[in-house]
């Protein structure tokens, strides 16, 4: 029995130690994410402070917006292709649900860039915006901030379907729209001629460290809690085992009384003597 108890204690201790190791690794992962966020924030600050430039000057021939280009301000000129406009559904800006209107801007060299023209707040429970502002005709000049193509893992929300989509993804849009699109898009900040006042603008990026440091502290605390609990229960369990063994030993020191040593009742002895006298 003692051996089974010991095996259970060992199994429980190993389980607690494994839990502590997992908590420590999760804490380290949060610190790693904190480092990544700080590096990304540094790039964002640099890009926000940079002077506007042409898109070719920033992206070059590959035409792919990467992490190093996020929030970089560019100026492009071209003509909107309203026939290939896409309405982004289920969008949310500053806790307001609504829609974003994305229209390709065809540049002089034939390439096109997706322009997120602005946000339209949803009215009541409408599934589509009641009014979509028309695009300006003729040549327009757009100033905006580059953003990476949005990706949603296994979802196909980046592929336009019947003029709507859920994500803005250059390569997926290109397949449906039949345009030579940049891989990424431009979030508009200024337009000439001016953008329609019905559109709401977009907030800037969040440049902070986020909750990663405090999450890491929580995981490290859970690890300490697990180790502390193991130490406590090991000590209390050890004392309980010793006291149980001691009480068992004390009860086993005195052998059961022999039948011959048991004192007979007085009346039983008298009856026995009378019986012998009769004999």
Automatic annotation (TrEMBL):
Q: Which Pfam families match?
A: SURF1 (PF02104)
Q: What residue spans carry the region label Disordered?
A: 145-166, 238-279
Q: How does it sit in the membrane?
A: Multi-pass membrane protein
**Which CDD domains does this chain map to?**
SURF1 (cd06662)
What is the annotated localization of this protein? Cell membrane; Membrane
Key words, A-Z: Cell membrane, Membrane, Transmembrane, Transmembrane helix
Tell me which domain of life the UniProt entry assigns to the organism this sequence originates from: Bacteria
Q: Where are the transmembrane segments?
A: 213-233
Acidic residues: compositionally biased ranges: 251-263
Checking PROSITE patterns in the record gives:
SURF1
Protein family according to the UniProt entry:
Belongs to the SURF1 family.
Name of the protein in question: SURF1-like protein
* Highest classification ranks of the organism: Bacteria, Bacillati, Actinomycetota, Actinomycetes, Propionibacteriales
């Amino acid at each position: 029995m003692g051996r089974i108890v010991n095996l259970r204690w060992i199994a429980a201790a190993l389980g607690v130690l494994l839990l502590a190791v997992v908590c420590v690794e999760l804490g380290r992962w949060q610190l790693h994410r904190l480092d990544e966020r700080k590096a990304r924030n540094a790039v964002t600050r640099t890009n926000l402070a940079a002077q506007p430039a042409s898109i070719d000057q920033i992206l070059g021939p590959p035409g792919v917006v990467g992490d190093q280009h996020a929030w970089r301000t560019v100026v492009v000129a071209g003509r909107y292709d309203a026939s290939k406009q896409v309405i982004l559904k289920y969008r949310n800006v500053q806790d307001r649900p609504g829609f974003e209107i994305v229209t390709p801007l065809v540049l002089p060299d034939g390439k096109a860039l997706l322009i997120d023209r602005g946000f339209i707040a949803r009215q009541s429970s409408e599934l589509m915006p009641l009014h979509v502002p028309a695009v300006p005709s003729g040549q327009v000049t757009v100033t905006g901030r580059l953003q990476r193509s949005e990706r949603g893992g296994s979802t196909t929300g980046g592929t336009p379907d019947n003029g709507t989509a859920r994500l803005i993804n250059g390569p997926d849009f290109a397949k449906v729209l039949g345009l030579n699109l940049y891989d990424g898009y431009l979030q508009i900040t200024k337009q000439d001629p001016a953008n329609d006042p019905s559109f709401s603008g977009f907030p800037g990026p969040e440049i902070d460290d986020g909750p990663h440091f405090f999450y890491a502290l929580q995981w490290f605390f859970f690890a300490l809690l697990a180790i502390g609990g193991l130490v406590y229960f090991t000590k209390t369990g050890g004392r309980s085992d010793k006291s149980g063994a001691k009480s068992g030993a004390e009860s086993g020191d005195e052998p059961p009384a022999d039948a011959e040593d048991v004192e007979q009742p007085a009346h039983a002895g008298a009856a026995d003597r009378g019986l012998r006298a009769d004999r």
